[in-house]
Each structure stands twice: as C-alpha cells, then as structure tokens.
Design brief:
heterodimer; A: mainly alpha; B: alpha/beta; Rossmann fold; six-stranded mixed beta sheet; two-stranded antiparallel sheet; 8 helices; 10 strands; Orotate phosphoribosyltransferase (chain B); pyrimidine biosynthesis (chain B); orotate phosphoribosyltransferase activity (chain B); transferase (chain B); magnesium (chain B)
Chain lengths: 107, 232
C-alpha cells in the first residue's frame, strides 16, 4: 500500500532529494486514490517537512537514520490501519501520525 | 563597481580557501559524517553563508568573482544576474552590483499561491543570465533554477558559485549539457592544500578527508551512506 513510498525513499539514497521525490510521489497518488487521500497527504507532508528542515542545513548520517526510522514508523502505522480496513482504525492511525508529525515540528 | 584588478587564479583560490577557514566555514568530521542531499555520506561540510557576515572578506570575494567571470566570459556577455534561493540571493545582489547589471532571484519552486511566481524581479525575454549560488556540489539545483529561468524566455549561459566541491568529475559536463558554463573561486582541493600547509586539523582527519575527496562514493558506502549515486 504505502510502503512502496518508503522503498522508493531508500532506493534513492534517503537524502533530501529522495524525500522530495517521495513527497511528490505521494501527492501524485492522491488524484488516483481519493479513498487514501488523507494518508497520502500526511505522508507527503512528513516528507516535505524533512526537505524544508534539511535542504540547506547540515545533516549527520545518524540524524538521517533517525529521521528515516521515524518516517518509516509513520508509514507503517498507516499501512497497518489500512490493512485492517475499519474506518475507526484508519481514523485513529491518521490522528496518531498527525500528532507525531506535529510533535516533531520545531515551530 | 568592480575594482578592475585581475589577480592570478591560483592566488584567488588559495586566498578564498584561507578566508573560508578563517571564518570557520569549513567543518571536517569523519566520526559523525554528514549526509548530502543525494544521500552521500561525507566527512566535509562547508557553510558559505557565513561569508555574508564578514564585509571585508565578502567584498574581496565579489571582486574575485567579477574578475574571474569577466576574464573567462567577457565584459558584455550578460544582461542579468540571478540568485538561487536562498544562499545565492545575497551573492547575486553583490555581484550584480559589481557587474553593473540587473538582478533577479529564483525560488526553488513556484510560490503555489497568488501569482505563483518562481522568479522575482524583471527579466527580459532573450536575456543572457548569470546564475549565482553559494556552492556547487553536483549541479542539480542549478539545472532546476536554469529551467525555471528558461520558461521566461531568458537563458542561463553561465553559473557562478563561490565554492565548487570538485568531487564528481562529470559536474561541469552536466552543466554544459544544460547550456551553462561553470565558474567558481575555490574547491575542496584548495581547502585541503591550505590545511596541509597551515597544519590545521590532525593528520588522521586530513587523511580521511583526502580519502573521501579521492573516492567519495566508496567513502560514503563505508560510512553509512549510499554506495552508488542515484540516477538524476
């Protein structure tokens, strides 16, 4: 379902450009998958947040690893709920991921 | 305006390397490497944006830039100087002033709202543009900025960066294929040379940096980064 986005991210090196491509890919799927739009939008937002944070800032290999772990967890949470299929599970996953993304944002 | 002196190219590179070291814009860290935008692990990081806070240094650098561009390209070959968001903007402002040319800046992507502008400032159709950024790694961002400029009917013929990594041999060719000649003042090799001469950093650190500069992809693979460059 959504894990292909993480696969693509890894295949493209897990750097800023890979996250940029991931955000673009997630946004591109929204038109074809309106039933998954909220999840794809959140994934796109999380990937774009990484781009905004590190595009012209130093990023250590360790920090990149932690970011990737966190991003993978967001996607896994959504994937698990979508596999379960219930509307309640999906809503709960969306709220959980949105809360975690918000908690990582340094505003 | 430009001071109309043309220092020797090697002197420019050495002086700029010394300036960057003097203001601590150069960082070497092999034990906790950095990740480039491509995913490449690297023991080196440079922050050319620091230059904006040093008026004497930035002024000399802009004189060097004008001399390199006028000498390499000519005095009447440009109609405008465009800065790439974000770090390219101040350097484009100073350089356009030195060269007596109009300035624009280019966003990384269109604003997405209102008039959806990607380029700010007036740019005439057919204008020959010098694109300015603080540094060049693999040239990817310059190609994107040049594409945005070409949509206006203007053309980026040359691009200037204060610093060029000079670790990917095909970068100048990639830029040439996109219609741009690359100009710069200093590279990692100039920094390395000054570091050795001034005995800055430990011998181990310098050896690690040299190992990276000679084989960046292999060094990356051995330090948690990508083992092949993504296809662009």
């Amino acid at each position: 379902m959504f894990d292909t986005l993480v696969t693509g991210l890894n295949e493209q090196g897990g750097g800023v450009r890979a996250y940029e491509a991931c955000a673009r890919a997630a946004r591109a799927r929204i038109a074809d998958e309106p039933e998954n739009a909220a999840a794809l939008f959140l994934i796109s937002f999380a990937a774009q947040r990484f781009v905004e944070a590190y595009d012209d800032q130093p990023l250590t290999v360790d920090a990149a690893g932690e970011e990737l772990e966190q991003f993978t967890a967001f996607v896994s949470t959504l994937d698990a709920a979508w596999a379960n299929g219930s509307a309640e599970a999906k809503l709960e996953a969306l709220n959980t991921v949105a809360t975690r993304i918000n908690a990582t944002a340094r505003s | 305006m430009f001071s109309n002196t043309f220092p020797d190219r090697a002197v420019i590179s050495e002086t700029v390397a010394k300036m960057l070291l003097e203001i601590n814009a150069v960082h070497f860290r092999a034990d906790q490497p950095y990740t480039f935008t491509s995913g490449l692990a690297s023991p080196v990081y440079i922050d050319c944006r620091k230059l904006i806070s040093y008026p004497r240094i930035r002024s000399a650098i802009m004189d060097f830039a004008a001399s390199v561009i006028f000498r390499n390209v000519g005095f009447e070959q440009f109609d405008a100087v465009a800065g790439g968001e974000t770090a390219g903007i101040p350097f484009a402002a100073w350089l356009s002033d030195r060269m007596g040319l109009p300035m624009q800046y280019v966003r990384k992507k269109p604003k997405g709202f209102g008039r959806d502008a990607q380029i700010e400032g007036t740019l005439e159709e057919g204008a020959r543009v010098l694109l300015v950024e603080d540094l060049t790694t693999d040239g990817g961002s310059k190609i994107k900025f040049a594409e945005a400029i070409s949509k206006t009917g203007a053309r980026v013929t040359d691009t200037f960066a204060v610093f060029y990594y000079d670790i990917f041999p095909d970068t100048p060719q990639k830029l040439e294929a996109a219609g741009m000649r690359l100009h710069y003042l200093a590279t990692w090799w100039d920094i390395l040379s000054v570091c050795k001469e001034q005995k800055r950093f430990s011998a181990e650190t310098i050896a690690e940096v040299e190992s990276f500069l000679n084989a960046p992809v292999q060094w990356s693979a051995n330090h948690g980064g990508i083992s092949e460059l993504p296809r662009s």
